[in-house]
């Protein structure tokens, strides 16, 4: 139910210029969700909604976009639990993972949106990261090690 409500909130804020929690709560009620102000407030926090300025000076709710290179706690946990080592061969990084975790770790790395990474290929327990240059590969390697807690 919460997942459905969150999806509806995202849909509503993309469709309408909702400026207040009350407006959002009313739209949810119109769509069959029995919500309180406290529930809407909690949902806004959990979805990391923010207010953005409209051209006419008013504001509206919008999804907070993660800054380039930042990751959610979920992706950081995946890196910490799934990675076992990071090796480097010129502009390629080879990442070893727990068996079966390469795809999840690769998805977490892709979510970082690092401009240095050209592409990611994942198998069962190994990931190959193509990086633009050897210097940038070293930078990416250090970021990955820092995030993974190794």
Gist?
It is built from six helices and six strands.
Label the structural class.
alpha+beta
Question: Which runs of at least 5 residues are low in confidence (pLDDT < 50)?
Answer: 66-71
**CA(first)-CA(last) distance:** 38 Å
Describe the strand arrangement of the main beta sheet, using strand numbers: 3-4-6-5
Strand content: 15-25%
Biggest sheet features: 4 strands, antiparallel
Give the % helix: 40-55%
Could you characterize what this model shows?
By secondary structure, the protein is of the alpha+beta class. It has 6 helices and 6 strands. The protein has helices at residues 2-15, 21-30, 37-46, 73-82, 102-111, 134-148; strands at 49-53, 59-63, 83-89, 92-97, 117-122, 126-131. It has a 4-stranded antiparallel sheet with strand order 3-4-6-5. A two-stranded antiparallel sheet has the order 1-2. A hairpin with a 3-residue loop joins β5 (117-122) and β6. It is elongated, with a radius of gyration of 20 Å.
């Amino acid at each position: 139910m919460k997942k459905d409500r969150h999806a509806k909130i995202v849909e509503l804020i993309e469709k309408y210029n909702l400026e207040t929690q009350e407006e959002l709560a009313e739209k949810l009620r119109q769509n069959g969700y029995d919500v309180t102000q406290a529930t809407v407030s909690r949902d806004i926090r959990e979805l990391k909604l923010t207010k953005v300025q409209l051209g006419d000076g008013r504001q509206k709710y919008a999804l907070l976009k993660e800054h380039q290179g930042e990751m959610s706690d979920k992706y950081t946990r995946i890196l910490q639990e799934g990675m076992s080592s990071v090796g480097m061969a010129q502009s390629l990084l080879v990442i070893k993972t727990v068996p079966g975790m390469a795809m999840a770790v690769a998805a977490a790395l892709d979510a970082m949106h690092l401009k240095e990474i050209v592409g990611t290929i994942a198998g069962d327990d190994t990931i190959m990261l193509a990086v633009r240059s050897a210097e940038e590969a070293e930078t990416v390697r250090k970021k990955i090690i820092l995030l993974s807690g190794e």
